[in-house]
Structure formats: C-alpha cells, structure tokens
Amino acid sequence: MKIATWILFLLCLPVLSIAQKGVRVVDNKGTVQYVDTSKWFSLGNNLYNKNKTGNIGIGLDTSVIPSARLVVSNGGNSSLPPLKLQYPLSGALADSVLTWNSADSTVRKIPAGTLLNNAWLRNGNAGTNPGTFASPGPDFIGTTDAAGFVIQTNNTERLRVLSAAPTQVGVATDAPAFTTPANTGAAIPTFGVDGTINATNYTNPVQTVTGGAWDMSKGATAKWTLAAGANTLTVTNMKAGMYGSIIVTNTGTSTISFGSGTNKVINGGGGAPTLTPVAGAVDVLSFLYDGTTFWWTVGNNFN
Asked: pLDDT at position 243, please?
C-alpha cells in the first residue's frame, strides 16, 4: 500500500509543481516562463494583471517605483528606443497626437485639429483674424523677435522684410537701404527693388467725378461732365507732392471754381480756369500740389 502511494505521489509531482508556479507563458525565444497567478491570470490568448491599483515597470531598476500604470525605460541607453509600435493603423485629422513631457516623462494627447489651427497650411487657412494695421490681430505670418522675414523660391531668397523701424522691404537684395520719404511728415515703410521694373501694362484708374468731388485716394486721373452754369471742383485726400489730371466736358455755358485750398492757374485767371465755351468741348486741367497750393495748368479745346 505504501509503495502504491509513493508511485501516485511521484506521478502527480510535476502537475503540483506547475500549479504552484502559475500561468505558463512561452516567450518569443521559446523559453517557458511561469507567471505568478496571485498577480496575473490568462484568459484565452490574453494576459491580465489582477492588481487594479498597481503599476507595471519595464526596464526599470527594482529600486524605482513605477509612477504610472505603465512605465517603459531603456535604462538610459540613448541608442535603444524604449518603445516601438509595429504596423500602426492609418490616422485621421479627427485623431489626437501623443506628446511627451520631458519634465516628468508623461505621455499626453493633443487633438490633431488643435495643431492644425496653429499652423499655416499649404491650401490656405479659414477663420483667421488679421486685425488692422493699427491694431493687428493674433494671426500673421512673420517673426516675433528682431529677426527679419524672408521669402524664398527654388531655395533662393526673393524678398526680405527688415525688422528695424522704419520697415524696409528688399527684392533680390538682402540689405535694402532706402531713405524714408520726408514729405509725409512721418516715417512710413519704404520699398526698394534691386533691378528694373517693366510696367508695360501699367494703368492708372480713371474715376468719374460726380457733383465736383474728386477723391485722390481713388486715383489721380478723373473725368467730369460739367453741368450748365457754375460748377465747383473740390479735391480731397491730398498730400504734398501729389499731382493729377481731370478731363472736363462742357455744356457750352459751364464754368469751374475751386472749393479746396489755395489755387493758382497758369497765365493768371484769378484762381479760376478758363474753359472752352462750346457744347461738347473737352478741356484738360492738371495740377501739382505742394502741401498748401494747387498749381494748375489748362489745356483747352481738345478735339
């Protein structure tokens, strides 16, 4: 009886040993490992940790307590990536991007759309707020320090905007140095070109004057069909150094007086031009403004 008992005990010993060791796991090298069933259990092809409040450390020294649910370390080996993911799924703009905080090594997420909202896209952006020149908005292309702004094509600089005031812009030169016009009474941005400009298709808009109001901000060339009798021409938005020309068509009885500034007319005229008193006659009035006075010349009876 004792012999039979010992034989049964010896036959059951491997089973008891395996049961005490826990869950049997085979690693990628074919080595059999046993996981402590008090902390781990298997279900199908999956392995679970029973400790719902504990953390897992991979590659950590045993003196280091994992400070997150999962901490993966390469042990300070700069040539060994601590984590690799093979065959990830393709993402979408609605996904989030994982970031790494160097201060505490935590992994966080930022919606991909948030990153795109802070970037200039090749196909353009929507919902930007440029503000105004006097009160710029938060959205712009440029620099926030004392560095200049450069535009390149074909890996070659084409345009440079300097950061020092007054702002200067150079085309095909990295050192634009142009004088600021003094006739404006204030420093304004200047524009310089190292080379030549071909303006074969240059046009100056011709505005149609109504009621005698000639706004120079809309163009220095104008045309005006006069009313019968007295007409008054008022020029607005002038700056010293400006000049302009206006084509006037007479009814035969039309006359012109000036309603703004001091006016001097060539060959006298008492500050009023002499027009051609013929119905349909065309006269051309041109002026140069020096900041206080309009100096007029008159070309009569173009036909």
From this structure: 92
User: What are the pLDDT digits (tens) for 233-263?
Assistant: 999 998 899 999 999 999 999 999 998 889 9
42-65 tens-digit pLDDT? 788 777 777 777 788 888 887 888
How buried is 34 (Cβ within 10 angstroms: 0-12 exposed, 13-18 middle, 19+ buried)? middle
- Cβ-Cβ contacts under 8 Å for 21 (sequence gap 6 or more): 34
What 3-state class would DSSP assign to 16?
helix
Contact status, residue 215 vs residue 236, Cβ threshold 8 Å: yes
In this prediction, residue 165 carries a pLDDT of 65
* Cα–Cα distance for residue pair 224/170, rounded to 1 Å: 39
- How crowded is the C-beta side of 99, counted as CA atoms within 13 Å? 12
- CB-CB contact of 242 with 289 (8 Å): yes
Give the integer Cα–Cα distance in Å for 265 and 221: 18
- Residue 138's region, left for phi above 0, alpha for psi from -120 to 50, else beta, is alpha
- Please identify which residue in the block is written with the tokens 């080996």: 77
The whole-angstrom distance between residue 174's C-alpha and the CA centroid of its chain comes to 22
Instruction: Measure the CA–CA gap between 128 and 204, rounded to whole angstroms.
Output: 32
- 279 falls in which pLDDT band (50, 70, 90)? very high
Name, in order, each residue with C-beta under 8 angstroms of 302's C-beta and a sequence gap of 6 or more. 282, 283, 284
Question: What average pLDDT does this structure show over 138-146?
Answer: 88
Alpha carbons 57 and 65: distance in angstroms, whole number: 8
DSSP 3-state of 2: helix
The three-class DSSP label of residue 182 is coil
Highest average pLDDT, of 24-38, 137-151, 196-210, 278-292, comes from 278-292
Q: Record the tokens describing residue 97, joined without a space.
A: 């991007």
Q: Which two tokens stand for residue 37?
A: 């069933």
DSSP 107: E
